[in-house]
Amino acid sequence: MKKRNITEFQILSEIVRKQPHIKQKEIADVLGITVQGVSEHIRNLLKKGLITSRGRGEYVLTADGMKALKVWISDFKSYLNHVNQDIYRYKDVWPAIANEDLKEGDEVYLYMNKGHLYASKEVKSKSTAKVSEGGYAGEDIAIENINGIIEIKKGKVIILKIPPKVKGGSKNVDYEVIQNILDANRDSVVATMGTISHVVSKKLNIKPEIRFAVLEGIVGACDRGCDVVCLITGKMTEKVVKTLDKHKISYSVIDCAKDVDN
């Protein structure tokens, strides 16, 4: 199912619920999209002949629109039934990484390492499980009968503040400071945000694991127990700090400009 089609059928559903008096802003609020987005979809639905306008924001479904909505509801129910079957089939089976060679039937302890779930015969936590499909050390295995809570210590963040272009950009960066921090935090996830930070990472031959949806990526990594070192350009640091404060994630900020007054 294409996202655009789903959104259009959601709009059709809202029009059916409240026709003929429904404002585009009301639809936008319900679906969590912009009014501009709703307007674009409305134009497309009018073009397809699935709705008609009575003017002043009054919309009603045409016969074709009602037929299309019924077909979509039927198809969506079928899709959900398939998903529900898959959930039921796999609800008790989880993937994990083998800490050592493991075979079917082994009783194991579970723990998190660098954001991934591991299974080991050694006591690593109070959480246990049974191996349903074994494998060699480092391979993915299947576990079931999970007992106990897998403890995850939230990761912390080191923000390396990179000067923006108006303050010298990559030419005003103390690369030694950055390299020393990276060397001291080799197990940390590396993130970059901003053009200058991207250039700096290239100069240091760094391949960041988080480049897009950076704020969500940093929070997600910390929630999975990973520490993060992030190169953030200029005032973008403020946005990152606000996000970390909101999610109660510990952090430190280090200014990496050679000439702070530049």
From TrEMBL:
<dbReference type="InterPro" id="IPR036390">
    <property type="entry name" value="WH_DNA-bd_sf"/>
</dbReference>
<dbReference type="GO" id="GO:0003677">
    <property type="term" value="F:DNA binding"/>
</dbReference>
<feature type="domain" description="HTH crp-type">
    <location>
        <begin position="14"/>
        <end position="63"/>
    </location>
</feature>
<dbReference type="InterPro" id="IPR012318">
    <property type="entry name" value="HTH_CRP"/>
</dbReference>
<dbReference type="InterPro" id="IPR036388">
    <property type="entry name" value="WH-like_DNA-bd_sf"/>
</dbReference>
<dbReference type="Pfam" id="PF25211">
    <property type="entry name" value="DUF7839"/>
</dbReference>
<protein>
    <submittedName>
        <fullName>Helix-turn-helix type 11 domain protein</fullName>
    </submittedName>
</protein>
<dbReference type="InterPro" id="IPR057161">
    <property type="entry name" value="DUF7839"/>
</dbReference>
<dbReference type="Pfam" id="PF13412">
    <property type="entry name" value="HTH_24"/>
</dbReference>
<dbReference type="InterPro" id="IPR012015">
    <property type="entry name" value="UCP_HTH_arc"/>
</dbReference>
<dbReference type="GO" id="GO:0006355">
    <property type="term" value="P:regulation of DNA-templated transcription"/>
</dbReference>
